[in-house]
Amino acid sequence: MTPPSAGQLLAVAQLHQMAADSRGALDLLSEPVVADGGAIRTEISLDCTGTAAANGGIRLRRRERFVLYVGADFPFSIPSVVVPHRRWAGTPHVQWGCLLCLFASPSVEWVPAAGLFGLVERLLLWLERAALGELDPDDQPLHPPVAYTSSVHGVTVVHPDLGGLAPYDAEAGRGHEERSTSEVVAPSCRLVVGLTLALSDDRKDVIEWMNREEWLRRFNAGQLPPSHEGRPVGGALAVLCNGELSFEYPSRAGALVDALEKLGLARSDLFVAIGEVAAVNYELASQRAPGGEALTSFPFDVFVGTPSRRMPGIALRQHLVCWRFDDIGRLITENINFADSAHPALARLGDLAQRLLPDWIATTETSWVQVMEARAEVTVRRDADSSTAWLRGRRVVVLGCGALGGPIAEFCVRAGVAALWVVDEDVVTPGILVRQPYSDEDIGVAKAVALSERLNRIRDDKPVQPVIGRAEMVLLADDTAAPDVDLVIDATANNTVTSLLELRRATRRDAWPPVMSVVIGHDARRGIVTVSHRGSTGSGRHVMRRLAIAGRTHHAVRLADVSSDLFPLEPRATTFQPEPGCSSPTFIGSAADLAALAGALFDAGLQGLARGSELQKEEPMLAGVVRLSGAVGPPTLGTDWFTWENDEVVRDVVSGYEVRISQPALTRMRAEVRRGARLRGTDIETGGLLLGQIDDACRCIWIDDVSGPPPDSLLSAVHFDHGVEGVEDLITHHRDRSGRLTAFAGMWHSHPCGKAEPSKTDRFAMRSLVTPLEKSPNRALVVILGGDEHTWTRWVDGDALVPDIFAQLATREVTDELIAAPPVPASHGTTAWPGGWRCRVDIPGPRRRRRLWPRRLRRRTARP
Amino acid sequence: MTSTSLPDQGLVFWPVGTGDSTTIVIDDEHVIQVDLHDMAMADDDGAVVAAVIDRLVEVLPRRGDRPYLAAFILTHADMDHCLGFADLLSKVTIGELWVTPRLWREYTEHDLPLCPDAEAFHKEAKRRVAAVEKAVAAGERPDSGERIRVVGYDTDHERHAYSELPNEYLSYPGEAVTSIDGEDLSDRFEAFIHAPFKDDCAAERNDTSLAIQVTLKNADGAEGHVLLLGDLAYDTITKIFDYSEHAERPERLTWEVLLAPHHCSKKVMYVTEDDAEVLKRDILDMIERHQAGDAVVVVSSGEFPAKNKLGDNPPHLLARARYEEIADSLICTGEYPSPDAPRPVVFGVGPDGFTLVEVDDEVGETAAKSVDVRSALAVGGIGVLAALAATVIARRRRRQPGRQGGGLDQVRRAVVTARGDEAAPQQPVGFGQR
Q1: Which residues on chain B are in Cβ contact (under 8 Å) with A83?
Q2: Are A297 and A335 within 8 A, CB to CB?
Q3: Which of B218, B278, B237 lies closest to B8 in space, CA to CA?
Q4: How far apart are CA A493 and CA A566, in angstroms?
Q5: How far is residue A305's CA from residue A343's CA, in Å, rounded to a whole number?
Q6: What DSSP state is assigned to residue B206?
Q7: Of the partner residues A20, A21, A47, the one whose CB lies closest to the CB of residue B407
Q8: How close is the nearest chain A Cα to the Cα of B432, in Å?
Q9: What CATH architecture is B10-419?
Q10: Which 34-53 residues of chain A touch chain B by CB within 8 A?
Q11: A61 in reach of chain B (CB within 8 A)
Q12: How large is the ipTM?
């Protein structure tokens, strides 16, 4: 006899230890001995008194016995636990009537270090739950019936839902969702046919369910091609029952047919249906064979469905097992239908088959094919509640198939997008293999093609289409329509693409799908994802610019690392040039870095997309910063989010440029208007500088900030002289601080309760603004805020978000007819106020009030 | 089932400490007592026990002016099975006495002491043998109160007076008895005799115990089965099961109630081999194989100790554990329903055989307080079984601390202890160079 292994000795020692410490609650009933197969067998007894019980649970005796089999490789194999009785046969998680299924997921639940201690603790938990009938609570899927499958038959994958084909209460007109497990219904079975493709000798896929009439109709109508995409087509019969068969499926075909008869399926009906399907299979096989003779026939399967599987709620679903006929059985079934043949020889053959079938059924053993469920109705997607749920069934474009686009495209395919276009103009080079998802054989192949071929192997429906070419030429060539997709992902990190996308999208932003852009830093330690919801002011370029400004201004500390990495003030002195020659400089980063960043950025982006509609309305533009560990910067976990409201968009009809006035800029203009009204009177005009950027590629002007009137300005109800005092310093300040993103963009002024349109004076001013003098701008935006009394007052009082706005880019090139400067109204000279914080200029009298200040201050300091 | 719906037929196991006292109610006119252990109010261990004789005198049917017991069956002559017999005999008319030949052997082998009640029993047995022989000689049948049935073999059978009795008064293993005290009760009662065996006649007294299966049948045709195996141990009980299985009469082994032999002695399933106690699975499997209905093992003993020491007398915790593995439940008379307030354990005949009758407190006490049990019996409002079930026994004040939590929790604690997860030194430990 083999001596026990070290592991088995350990198990024995652990058992003795527990028994000794248990005061009789755990008895060792037999000394462990090495049994057949090298496992040691021992029997223990547990004190189960006082265990809470409930109806439907197993009934525990005061003590229960268990036989343990501990393998020689313990603790690296899980001991099996068997009960020496059949009292629990038929209860969930008791297989073969006596083998306890203690671990649902052994790989994570079995801890070798815990050894038999862990096993006994698990057994205790199992017993407690079993006694309460909680091993299979209603909110969890039932442990499916066990059919012990044979690997020689390969696998069968079931794709389509059975849904309403299941027989539950069909006569009562109720769907299968409505039947609860507690109801007792008359047994009934339904026979349906599964249209099956043989993908290989080892794999068959059911791709469609249909009733028997439809199966025969299609065959007779010639609508059942013998092959589909080169794969042999056949049928499998499915018997769908509304009653439980048993926890284990019968091992003899006769017992199975008996059991089905009890569930309401007469064997004669079963045999007829078997004949129907098998005969068609034979015919299809004949059509496939070169000489019309079926050389290799289609394996014959019968699915047996029982209402065993419950999804959350009370819906019952069919659990399927698949019974594979052996060759003799198949040959018999293929010939049954000949019994009705007019041809005497065939009829005799059919007659023979009909008589043989019951005998074959009675004597043969059932052999089960492993069923792999892909039915949505019984499976829960492993990514069910993850961020990628947003993608399911959507149509997506990924621009760029590189280090970010490649993985992201794969995420989309796995997440279940309905269609995916991958766009790239490059081919695969050897250098990118270290971090992009391509293989050696792809070298020289267009990335889009190589990627789509690989991704289409993931899913049988092949959802990926390659687009070879520059993204801007393909997707963005058409400026008349928004792309007909649900999401555009820009993973090109290409300024041209980004800008063109910004330009195209601006013309019909309400029609455009959401846009997501991803970029990463120079050393692949951090990245940014931007999300622009449908209708938001800008997309990647816009949001990235906002983030860059935030990193220089309000969030200088929080975004210090991002600013220096992704928005450096000076171009990096050394760029990374991986290959000799004129290859494009790139960043340094490994496949691991890229996988981490691509996953994190995409996940963050999807979360941004899925954010509530409320937020979409308020702040529809988002940027998320993702940092890998080791990245210098704030130790933020997860995604560092920044969000923006939509800008106020005004179109300059002359230049065609779009003016995007940020909400802070608009708010500051109102603050200035309010201040002026308090200081100088509600009818006094005011104004100041516009700070921002003019982008000729995107044909847009961003207004990020504004100032009030310089101190040397003169303001009155009829005129506004914009001064120059301190203006240059202010602009320099903004320009330097923002890394040149925000500079002088123009001037604004108000027409309180007046029209938001330029007066003659204003037109003249626009010309003089761009007068070619040294250091003066050659173009400038002029913004005029106005509105009738109602509109104006509501805006000033905060009851409305915007006044009437006029915007026009004044350029030197505009050959407006030379107009003379209109005369300044005389009242301006006598009633005008100075800008800044100064009070009204006393013209011509002395400025007495200014002198009061020192005196007042002195008086205040003299107080006790 | 509550006492208000008590059946007419059933079994009563009395809380009498470690000893046997089983009352079989065949119907309201016929009651059998198997063994007796009637003590004063408390036994040596301070456990509260039932005053069986007093209660029987109150409740038994009457013939003439005396309470009437149809039969008294003594499995063997140990004190814990016959204590109080002399008292019972003086207060109650015992129709028929069942006795094993061993009793006579006890007298011929003088080194085996008998307790006074056993001597009284033997004296009464001898009196009845003489009375029966006299009646038979006169061509008459003995009167109730004179009858005797000698059960089992003895190799020196011929040496004793009872050997002269006609076969009608002798029974042997393998036979079924359906008449008691001269009355044919075969429509409701049957006792199948399993032991004593001839081969065991000279063995230890315990091994010569009477072993019977008693079947009660009710008017609906339902049958209850109880195995009363006295103080037998592994060898003899195995023989009983082997014989009946071999003889293809498994129905004679059926039980819903098993009185644990020898007050739950581990010698039923543990045998000493090479100085080691070895568990005998075969006997447990056999016992389990023949159970029916809600199988209950009744242990007639005082409360189980928390722990057994080597050489302890029964009840044995080990044996209890083994019974608990094979039966649906185990009831110890000294602990039912609780150790400080025991009550008779009552089974009635129901559709699934003998079924435990749960007597709820209120009904039980009302019945017990009824001033005149006889009058209650007379008007038919309450049967003998119900009256016996309603016996109230004084509560004990002391209560031993109970075990914390259920059995599985105890196993769980054992696992934690064995694993050493929560181990910490529990006493100071000295170290030092010298």
Answers
A1: none
A2: no
A3: B218
A4: 11
A5: 37
A6: G
A7: A47
A8: 32
A9: 4-Layer Sandwich (3.60)
A10: 45-52
A11: yes
A12: 0.83
Find the residue in A nearest to B269 (Cα): A29
Spell out which residues of chain B touch residue A48, defining contact as CB-CB under 8 Å.
406-408
Best residue in B279, B298, B325 for a mutation probing chain A (most A CBs within 10 Å): B325
Residues of B in contact with A49 (CB under 8 A): 324, 406-407
Cα A489 from Cα A530, distance rounded (Å): 10
- Which residues in chain B (323-342) have CB-CB distances under 8 A to chain A? 324-330
Q: C-alpha angle with apex A704: A751 to A542, nearest 5 degrees?
A: 125
Residues 6+ apart with CB under 8 A from A607: A387, A639
Which residues in chain B touch residue A62, judged by CB atoms under 8 angstroms apart?
324, 327, 329-330, 407
C-alpha distance from residue A810 to each of A440, B147, B156 (Å)? 56, 137, 140
Contacts with B406 from chain A: Cβ below 8 Å: 47-52
Do the Cβ atoms of B213 and B254 come closer than 8 Å?
A: yes
**B307 with A23: Cβ contact below 8 A:** yes
How many residues are given for chain A? 864
In chain A, residues with a C-beta closer than 8 Å to the C-beta of B260 are none
Instruction: Please report, in tens digits, the pLDDT of each residue of chain B (434 residues total).
Output: 333 456 789 999 999 989 999 999 999 899 999 999 987 654 555 556 778 898 889 889 999 889 999 999 999 988 889 999 999 999 999 999 999 888 777 666 656 678 889 999 999 999 999 999 999 989 888 999 999 999 987 766 666 777 778 888 999 999 999 999 999 999 999 999 998 888 777 777 778 899 999 999 998 889 999 999 999 999 999 999 999 999 989 999 999 999 999 999 999 999 999 888 899 999 999 999 999 989 999 999 988 988 888 888 899 999 999 999 999 999 999 888 888 888 899 999 989 999 998 766 544 555 554 444 445 454 445 678 888 887 777 665 555 555 567 889 999 999 988 887 676 776 676 676 65
* 3-state helix/strand/coil string of A247-303: CECCCEHHHHHHHHHHCCCCHHHHHHHHHHHHHHHHHHHHHHCCCCCCCCCCCCEEE
Q: Is A403 on the interface with B (CB under 8 A)?
A: no
φ/ψ of A770, rounded to 5, equals -105, 20
Determine how β-strand A687-695 pairs with β-strand A743-750: antiparallel
In this complex, which of B325, B410, B411 lies closest to A65 when CB atoms are compared? B325
